[in-house]
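Exercise (ungraded).
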Amino acid sequence: MYSGTASLKDEEEFTDILEERRRTTDLGYALRTFNPQPYKGAPYSSTSDLKKAVLESQYLRYIAKEIALETGSSVEKVRQEARGILEEMSHNLQLGFIRLMAYTVNKVFKRLFRSIYVNMEGLNMLQQAIQESPVILMPNHRSYVDFLIVSFILFTYDIPIPVIAAGIPLASMKVVGEILRRSGAFFIRRAIGSDKLYWAVLSEYVRTIVRTGCAPLEFYVEGFRSRTLKSVVPKLGMMDMVLEPYFKGEVFDITLVPISISYDRVVEESLLALELLGVPKPKESTTGLFKASRVLQEDYGCMHVNFGRPLSVRQLCEGKINRSEYNLIPRDLPQRPSTEIQDCVNWVAHLIVRTQEEGSLISPWSLMACLLLQAPITTLTEEGLQWHGLTEKTLWLRKLVLDFRGRLNWPDSDVMSSTVALHHSIVHHKAGRVCLVQDGDPASQDPLSPEEGVMRTAAAVLMLVSYRNQALHVFVRPGILATAIHITKSTQKDELFSFFCFLRDVFANEFIFIPGRASQDFDEACSLLQKCGAVHMSEQEVTVLETGLEVLSFLQKLLQPFLDSYQLIFRYLCENGAHVFTEKQFLPAVQNLATKLILSGDLHTFEVLSSDTQKNVLSALRRLEAVTKLRAGLYITQKELLGGSIPTRFPLC
Amino acid sequence: MCHTFPALTSDRSSRICSLLYKHGSSMASNSSGSDSSDRQRIAQQRLSVIAGHLQRPVEGNSGILAAECKAQGDKLDVSSERRTVPRRRQEIMKWNGWGYSDSKFLYNKKGQAEFTGKRYRLSGMIIPGLREWMESTFGANLQHKTPAAPILNSSAVQPPTLNEAFLKELKSTGIPFSHDAEDRVFRSHGHCLHEIFALREGKIGRVPDLVVWPNCHNDVVKIVELACKHNVCLMPYGGGTSVSSALECPPEETRSIVSLDTSQMNRILWIDEKNLTAHVEAGIVGQDLERLLNESGYCTGHEPDSMEFSSLGGWVATRASGMKKNIYGNIEDLVVHIKMVTPQGVIEKSCQGPRMSTGPDVHHFIMGSEGTLGVVTEVTMKIRPMPEYQKYGSVVFPNFEMGVACLREVARQRCAPASIRLMDNEQFKFGHALKPQVSSIFTSFLDGLKKFYITKFKGFDPNRLCVATLLFEGDREKVLQHEKQVYDIAAKFGGLAAGEDNGQRGYMLTFVIAYLRDLGMDYYVIGESFETSVPWDRVLDICRNVKARIVRECKDKGVQFPPLSTCRVTQTYDAGACVYFYFAFNYRGLSDPVHVYEQVEHAAREEILANGGSLSHHHGVGKLRKEWMRETISSVGMGMLKSVKDYVDPNNIFGNRNLL
């Protein structure tokens, strides 16, 4: 019913929308008649109507009164404050600015990309869906570039322009902030924390948009741009707000449209790696944007925007929740949803991210990255990897991806060398060998310290890691099974299943697993490994086939960096004397330890240096209750747990 | 069932009928004509009241009255008329459809819709718009007929399982009874779609084995005693208008099932003019009760849409609601005293105090008990002097949202007229299709002009506008004042007064719809209505969601044509409203249309509950909605009801298995 794979026919037609753009004038395009068919029940509502509806809602009145009572200030003052929040937040969608946006974006995209491929069938389904119920557009977020891509496409195809949830830093950019606002962006503060009034204004604002269906709502369920290009475990705040009108019966249904955006090459690739290594990202600013304009000189290949099959929230939630729990409290008053509802929201959010993954296209480069990362680091940085071997292995991997039902973006001619050429900032191909490009001037006067050397290599490796991550979702489930087989050395299905579940549980912050579907995931892993001839399955046993060793070893090596990284951090926490530690101490300390071990040759992955990995481990440990958060940034380890069950089951390899 | 309207004009033109029906011009137009005619009318009314009082009690069915009941001659029987419902219902009523045998819709030779008979205002008229409406709404076609089995085939009826000992003793009491197949089949069903559909196909399931017609309370006491003694299952039967499968014989029942038909207990035993109450036998049907009280210058004001056929006992047993409850109240507000015969004996209160603080009100065990505890035999009800003046009205709103907002405001100001109902756009169109042929060119010209004014001049979208129908009642001055107040409120919500005619036709729609279903069933269209009550803040949502759910479920279940899915708000309360849904579809191409219908209705009910609506506002639970009782009233609530049942009727003599 909701399976993402069902919606992904192998031979789906993608159309290059830039092709037509290159043939017509930009101005003519921007001034085209735009006459979308809106959601049928939607009464016209202007931006000011929307703001008024939010401010005058019973809900906000109630919260304002409550806050006034708690803080001792006057209701009028609180409402004034709410008005301010709303002003800061509110979008101001105007057709004129949509045209301006379309004009600009069109120019930029034509410059950056060779093609932008869109699946027309998905667009048609979206057009249909928009007339039937409020639509939520849910793209993945891999680059700043994709912020306006959906609006751009919808404008091109006469579909109502969405309002888009954006981070507040964008709003503070001079001029650009305002243009974005008028192109439909509304702005949300980061780290809202326990600001009750802010939550109230935001949630009422979002709910009102959904309730009235005045425009499609676009938001990133992953919460932010993924620095690692790997899917991020979804954030539930917005998801809650968006789904509530359905739970409360204020709309008949809500349609969720997962959108998978895949890049051959991500514009901010080098920034991402540095950011992960702790070099702070440049603050969003208009001048920064102009400085970044040198990126316009580069070639970024193609972009694929895959509109997934629209999902009916009503159908998704059927049998999972009982909406009558909202019957006994006036609907305008805040009500904490039951765990049943919360679980359902969480499930839907994960499902969407999984569907995004399944809809994204894997480039040859991602496969190469997987393989390059399995080579010893010294080979990569020094003599280089044999080109011939790499291309052959890549073709082998292509077949495996197809066996695993992954979607490939595999252009017909000259794939390998053009791919490598496109990614000249990461590798260079010379004399039959491929080497990692390392930033900085190698002939610099000051020789780098060993630590600096590690960081320099890490920056290059992490870029490679990002591209590997784009393909990871295809391999994760069979990969975990391969790891389980490798570690347990067991052939017993139930034993493998239990270890599979354990790993799935530990890595639930790292990869996207739909809650409650462990056994389906296991079955999927089994059937994929069987399909590619790696194992033989019987009722109780999983036996490794001779022919499957290559696949299993590839998969196991693919996940090895994660195991190593987690292990290192567990060890650090176990061996570190203090029970209580702050996030500020923790991150550099882990980095130091890792650097030391890399230098001594005891650690073979650079990924533990990534702050993303470190944060994921911390979240995982908190989820597993091995670490408790005392207050913001301060943690305590639950030694008996950490020293007990988890590391002992976690293999020391 | 909530259809219909005070209709029947019997041989004497009763006042209620002249007021509401048949003779077209309402009192409003009469009285607004001139003062002298007004005075004349009041004088006539007084005369008829006096005449009513002077008349000697006449025993309509004296031949069959049991001796003991006849002996109650000291009681004043203020009634004077032949009653509507004979023992043999088949003499005047359809066996496989709604209402009187002589009244039905059909397409005449010219292919025009026509309503037969002489009873109703619409009788004998051509309805030009109906065919096109049916064709365009359902995709129905006059070529595709699904005729019903013409006569009841008695051989299809299972032979009765009789309890000989019970029968023998029953005979000795002299209470009339029958095990004739027709009599039994008539009492084996209500008017749910599946029940009527089966009858039309000539399919007959489990039916009662015996029908008894008690004539008075004491007869009932005897029957219940005998039933307990011989372990016979009793199922009370009143007007047979149930739409909750309440009259369906439980298939698992192995005992002899006796249908206890109260229709012959139909006298007004006394009228107390000092306290304004009337003591009435519970088998009386609504139209008789109203007509007889009218003769004395009174009314109960209780007018459920089914009042032509539904009985007082049935109202009590299902917690009925009347169209004019805003003035007169629902049945629970009207009842002062109830007498019920149970296996444990007779339950009644010792006095008729208007309110008591004596623990939980035992009347509330009886009201809504749906025949599971005993038989209601006599009821003391509040009565009111007949209203001096009555006036219909209607308001057109640009859309349903505005209409609901207006009704909400009317309720907030507590100034609801006797009745106020809001139809959605589809029902508005439906009502329009039921306009009888207009005789004068002038009228149709005027109609055209009105339409032009509303859609073109006022900019109402004909596909969104909706209409509220109103009925005002009381003294003339107050009615006019009240009317102004309501229209002023309506104006604030964009409402335009749309005349008395539209209002009156709106109420007519209520009663004809039940007849119309039979017409639909002749042409592959099946449908039904169901209701709920819901807090004000959810009215719009529930209307939208349930209608949408119906459409979606039909699509999912393979219905080939878009269904009619429409609703109206029929009652307003301080804290909410009663909403009625109508749902019908063309079932051509479906192998089991009734099953599809039931699945969709089931889904619609789930949707209602999920949106904060109640399981039922006044139709009751019966067997159709039993599955939701526990979640509706909680397990403890179920336990309470069960323990009452266990005490009152430990052997499940009243074994219709409704409710619990």
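Further reading is listed at the end of the chapter. For now, observe: The first helix of chain A runs from residue 17 to 23. Confidence is low (pLDDT under 50) at residues 1-11 of chain A.
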